[in-house]
Amino acid sequence: MAYPSVKPWLNAAAEARLANLILYGSVALVLVFFYVPIFTLIAFSFQEGRFLTLPFEGFSLRWYGELFRNSNAANALWNSTLIALFAMVFATLIGTLAAIVAVRYRFRLRIPFTGLAAAPLAFPQLLLGIVLLLWFSVLGRQFNFNTGLVTAIIGHVVYIAPFAMVIVAVQVFNFDATLEDAARDCGASTWEVYRYVTLPLLWPGIFSAAIFSFLLSWGNFYLTYSLAGSTRTLPTFVFSGIATGSSPLYPAIATVVFIPGILLVILADRMRRKAA
Amino acid sequence: MSAVIDRSWRDPELLAKALPAVLLQTTCFLAPLLMTIALTFQRTRDFQLNWTWSLYTWTDVFTKPHYWTILGHTLFMAILCVALCLAIAFPVAYALATRLRSFQNHVKVLITFAFLTDATLKTFGWVLFLDKNGAANYLAQGLGFEGELVNILFTDWATMLGMVYNLLAFAIFTIYLSIDEIDRSLILAAYDAGASKFRAFWEVTLPLARPGIWAGAVLIFLLAVGVFLEPKVLGGGKSPMSAELIRQTFETRVNWPLGAALTMVLMTVAVFVVLLFNRVYSLKRHMGPA
């Protein structure tokens, strides 16, 4: 199709400069935007006073000390870690298997399978939490159990397994299946092919899925809020605190939470790049 | 590239791998969802659920305009949030995919970390930043501005800021992936055919990035419809959105059928809006210049 020639309103060099300005500028602005609350929290965690207002009365590590003496916070930290570890193991396992099925095989029911396995991705978390809470409440009345750690873990796995599936699927997609055939031709058993060929090749994807799963669970608010019963994790502990009035403890909690997060994200990135 | 293997769906190896996901999502996603639908046709008496079938809840839902006003407000906020996220995310995703060669991984790590950090804490960070005596005004006064320059905390603006903040990364990731997959030679071909950089972008890159834009928009919309943290913490709970209404119905009023019905209404309307946009969008593509 022919387009009428239009006199450009900018010459090529100016156009390129403008494009670069917009592009680099937007990245810079978005990074600033993303880190505004994070740096605010870190800054506030080192302040001396009881009130979370500026200017600071002074700098100190006082609230970190208080944090480690606070048994509720320590308990919440322990619960968060426990839930995240279990959610990570199950979500990664289920997600990995589902990714292999969805990408490597062509079979009838493939589309319904993928849709079902990925469905919770597009479901608002609070509503997923509520729907599951109703489910567990009705089941709980029947079989006499209460919501708590276990139901929270189940809820997290339902929500996170699809994420793990998508991450591993990318790795499966780039997978060279002839390597498996080669191993089989050399006399490897099905298990040996898995153990020595398939798994090592998919490992970087599985590993980053695991880290993502851990962090998604660790930072999850909505599902824990609905499903953990009286068990508190860090996010729900902080939320219940904010709802009743802010405490100088929370910025310190936040900063403590950030550290393993950034380390894990860097680690996951290293693994993925090594594989690429 | 992995070879696709043809299998019968009854193949034992395939079934074994598919089973965990199928079991999990049928027992803990599909079944609860169906039960929620069934719940909407029940009644409560003295805060206790009665398993007797009735249309009471639904007549209540359809006769009280209050629920629908809140739903309208929620949809408006969600659509605005999608528009803002797409507008902000596109240049960032484009820059990530086409510029920033050496910094690309660092930027990706920074965005991923910000995305994966606990939303409650980040939202609280915004409260500290936007507060009248908070960091924003302190910085503004340091720069010589008089009075309280930033005064949006506990308004819909703050809610919107929080929503965009918490959901933006989804659009950046999906759009980045679709731009990253574009074959460079197509753009070079457009240059050879005499297209300016802008025209090549408009006629080649943008249409090819559509799947990512669309995926990001749908994901963000469906998540934005269900937010409750941002309106509560940043909006001060002044103009409740549907998720907050639903939460109250369950927790304060202990009315499960009504809560379940409002959940279903919200989900149905959300999916309907997505389908509607999809239809308008594909119509436009068929009727517009090819």
UniProtKB/TrEMBL annotation, chain A:
Keywords: Cell membrane, Membrane, Transmembrane, Transmembrane helix, Transport. It is found in: Cell membrane. GO terms for cellular component: plasma membrane. GO terms for biological process: transmembrane transport. It holds the Pfam family BPD_transp_1. Residues 77-268 form the ABC transmembrane type-1 domain. Gene3D superfamilies: MetI-like. It is a multi-pass membrane protein. It comes from the Bacteria. The chain crosses the membrane at residues 21-46, 82-103, 115-136, 148-173, 193-216, 249-268. Belongs to the binding-protein-dependent transport system permease family. CysTW subfamily. This is Spermidine/putrescine transport system permease protein.
TrEMBL record, chain B:
The keyword Protease does not apply. The keyword DNA-binding does not apply. Gene3D superfamilies: MetI-like. The chain crosses the membrane at residues 21-41, 75-97, 109-129, 157-179, 213-234, 254-277. InterPro entries: MetI-like, MetI-like_sf. Pfam families: BPD_transp_1. One of its GO terms (cellular component) is plasma membrane. Keywords: Cell membrane, Membrane, Transmembrane, Transmembrane helix, Transport. It comes from the Bacteria. It is a multi-pass membrane protein. CDD domains: TM_PBP2. It is found in: Cell membrane. Its main location: membrane. Belongs to the binding-protein-dependent transport system permease family. CysTW subfamily. This is Spermidine/putrescine transport system permease protein. It comes from Dongia mobilis.
